[in-house]
Amino acid sequence: MSLKQLTCANCNATITAPQVASIVVCPYCGHTFEISTGKKLEYYMFPAYVDSASAWRKTVQFILRRYGVPEDFNTEANLRKTELYNIPYHVFSCKAYSSCFYHGNQASYIEVRNISILAARTGTWLDGFAEKLYFSVRGRSFFNPNQAQKSRFYLPTLDYHRAYNMAYQFITSQAISEARKSCSGFKGVDKAEVNYLGLVHYPLWLMEYNYKGKTYRVLMDASGGKVIFVEYPLSTKSRTIMLTAATIMIIVGLVSGLLASFISPIGILSGLLSSIIISSPLLVKALSLKDKGSETPAQRRLSSEAWRAVEALTSITSFRLPVLE
Amino acid sequence: MTEPIITEKVFKCSNCNGPLNYTPETIACVCEYCGTVNWFSTSRFEIFVIPTRTRDEVINAFWNRMKKDPDMGKIYGDIELVEVQGFYVPILLGDVSVRGSWVGFRRETEYSGKRVSTRIVTERGSFNTSLRLALEARREAMEYGLQELISQAKTVMAQPIESVDWKKVGLQVLNAEISPEEAVDELKDMAEDQMRDSIRSSKRLDGFYYYSCTSNVDSFWIVLAPLWSIVYKYKGGMYRASLSGYNLQFLRVSEPVFLSQRILYLIGSIITILMGAFILPLTLLSKEDLPSLGFLIFIISCIVGVYLTRKSVSDIREEKWK
User: Is B5 in the A-facing interface, judged by CB distances under 8 Å?
Assistant: First the structure.
């Protein structure tokens, strides 16, 4: 990977940054600036309130409450890898006014949103989750060199002008869709304001553990302490129970369908169909290799169109950045 | 020469000189030692506080609830308290007057013998009222029980910030992050949306031809509401509960699912299979034109069935405050 050398305007330290980085956070003093213009940007980070030991403990406690986890999980599961990732987001405060005409009447609407846009891709599976992340309610802080240096610290590859455009595009599309809900006439966006609030780094624990020769993945919110994604094994006993229950359900469906077919020939079909649909969650769970769970319900903050735009832009520069020494 | 490392900018309380939890977006910072509001912005809010019960009272309330709960009471002895944490969350409250008019439509289906017809009904109306709204004064934040706390904060009488004995409280106070200008815009946006949604649901409309709403924010203020979050363990598994520090109301609780409940869910889903199997043949048999209704019931019973099956292998049951 090609690197470039820069000088921090605040502390004069020499900073090494990857060629694709558009914004640099000085690893010594936290001074944040745009490389092309030297403009200073607002910066803050979420502290990793959860350390690596408690991250693993919380993960185990989360897994143990799930259904079908092997009884020896606590003793047999071994943490193999745990790493702190600091993921950058551009944060904007956005506002748009839309208006609509209907039979000579004009109505106007306001749409206000805070929008955070993922500013770099790690090239790992956590990206998909990072896109949908909600920030923790707990306090954020200024730059902390200790946390930055102990982590995989990603510098933004998505420059803030492009992020700005995406936020702009998103808030205007949001304003139009609000207007669509309210009015059937001719619609348009009158004005949109997008304010850049700064760059924020959010900490995530990425873990891998082994259980009886297989590797499983975990992603935890290191600020809020919640399990974002976890994979875990299912015991043979629980798989058998689920399969048996599913079989019983299908048999019930078949028998009742046969009885119902005395009324009308469609009975056998409706019985079979409903039993297969209704038992499907059990079948899927029992037959999957690893079960998955999450404590944070996935909520898309951006509409799907806006995300497609984000994906198109960030994939150009998808890149793993070096860890600060 | 390189300058010293700046890791934290230290700000001190104007009254007691205690360190403040100042963060880059802070607008107002309440000193955790004396309760003085330190401003970092020229435009200001009024800040009120909802007093909190003590940590011990929160812990007692937790144990009392578990003891009294018919399911949890049985495993009371196996529950272990892992973490109890409280903080003051800033909530933005506002009174907004809204005025406007609307023209909406509703699709109505009529069954007359074998014929099914749909007609579109137009309705219109106007409104002139006032709304009390609440939202979190932090950006893009999520916390277990936060939404419930926000709706509770709307109805609680908050007190002046000086009325709290800050030396005794010892809770982390999270800073408000929205500026007064943003607050006005957010409240207007929320008022518009809420009014539209309430008209839509109360008039059972399918959509609007026109909806216009002029909103005016009469007043707004910040309330610091105490949120307590509890983590407890049962058989190695971790569960959460969150309480309002104001009245020790449980905002959200997650509880383990017991074997007996799993079996009940499964029995429920078997009943939906029976419904699904019989409803289509029965409605086809009838002389009336009922198949569409039968098909609808078939789909509903499948959805309910899948929901119950999923519940039977889920890890928690959740209770929310309404």
Answer: yes
Across all residues in chain B, what is the average pLDDT? 84
Establish if A240 touches chain B: CB-CB under 8 angstroms: no
A290 contacts chain B (CB < 8 A): no
Half-sphere exposure of A64 (CA within 13 A, CB side): 21
Spell out the domain ranges in chain B: 28-252, 260-320
CB atoms A182 and B298 under 8 Å: no
What backbone phi and psi angles, to 5 degrees, belong to A22? -105, -25
Q: How many CB pairs under 8 A join A and B?
A: 247
Structure tokens, A319: 């890149």
pTM: 0.83
* Nearest-CB residue to B23 (from A110, A134, A141): A141
B301 reaches A (C-beta below 8 A): yes
Portion 33-72 of B in contact with A at CB < 8 A? none
- Kindly give the interhelix angle for B180-202 and A160-182, rounded to the nearest 10 degrees: 30
Rounded Cα–Cα distance for residues A49 and B246 (Å): 26
Phi, psi of B266 (to 5 degrees): -65, -40
| A275 phi, psi to nearest 5 deg | -70, -35
- Is B21 buried (19+), middle (13-18) or exposed (0-12) by CB count in 10 A? middle
- pLDDT tens-digit map of A69-101: 998 998 999 999 999 999 988 888 889 999 888
Contact state of A29 with B233 under an 8 Å Cβ cutoff: no
In terms of CA atoms, which chain B residue is nearest residue A238? B313
What pLDDT shows up at residue B291?
A: 66
Half-sphere exposure of A37 (CA within 13 A, CB side): 7
Nearest-neighbour CA in chain A from B165: distance (Å): 22
Asked if B225 contacts B149 with a C-beta cutoff of 8 angstroms, the reply is yes
Residue B306: the pLDDT is 94
Q: Strand A78-102 and strand B47-49: pairing?
A: unpaired
- For residue B83, the model assigns a pLDDT of 87
Q: Do residue A281 and residue B309 have CB atoms under 8 angstroms apart?
A: yes
String of b and e for A219-235 (b: at least 16 CB within 10 Å)?
A: bbbbbbbbbbbbbbbbe
Q: How far is A318 from chain B (nearest CA, A)?
A: 25
Average pLDDT over residues A272-297: 88
